[in-house]
Amino acid sequence: MATDNYPMNTAGPRVRRLPNPGAAIVVALALVAIALGLVVVVGSNLETSADIRKESQEAHFLGEMQIAVTAIEASLASWQTDPVTSDHPADSPVVAAAAADFRHWASQLSALIDEDEIPIVQGFEDAFDRYLAAVVGIDVAGDQGDLQAITALDLQVRVPLLELLQEESEHLLESVVADRRSERLLRWGLPLLLVLALAGLAFVVRLQNRSQQLDEQ
What we know:
The protein is mainly α. Helices cover 80% and strands 0% of the residues. It is built from four helices and no strands. The chain has helices at 21-81, 93-112, 118-136, 144-216. The longest helix is centred in the last third of the chain and has 73 residues, at 144-216. The two termini are 45 Å apart.
C-alpha cells in the first residue's frame, strides 16, 4: 500500500497568550473593597466627631446648671451671714438670674439628648423647683430644720447632675480615644489605600491596553 509522504508541520499555528480576564475581575473587586473601606473609615470618623460635639455640649449644659445652683447657694449663704444688708433670696436678682439660667440650660439639654433621657432632665427641673421654692420661702427666723431641709433638696438637685455629668464625661473620653484611633487610621491607612487603588487601576489599564494590542495584531 503506497503512502504519500508530506512534510509535517509539527510546530502548529502560532498562539498568542491573551491576558487573563480573571485578573482584571480580581483587581476590580479589590478596588471596590478599597472604596468601601474608605467610605467606612471616613463615615466612622464623621460619626465619632459628631458624638464628641454632642457630648461636649451636654457636659457644658450640665456644668452651667451646676453653676446656677452654686449661685443660689452663695446668695443664700450671704443672706444667712448678713440678713440686714444682703437681699433675701426671694428678692435677690442673683437668685432670679440663676433660676432663669438653670431652666434655660435644662431646656437646651432636653433638645439635645436622646428621647429616652428627657425624663431625667425633667427630674432635674422638678428637684430644682422644690429647692428654689424652699430657698425663696425661707423665713428670717428660720430654724435649723429649715436649713437642713434646704440642704437635702439641694443634694437632690446636685447629686443626679453630677452623676450624669460624670457619665457624659466618660462617654466623651471614650469618643476622644476612638477619634484619635480613627485619626491615626486615616493618617496612615488612607494614603496606603490610595496607593493600592492607583496601583490596581494602573494594572487594569495596562491589561486593557495589552488586550487591545493583541486584538490589533
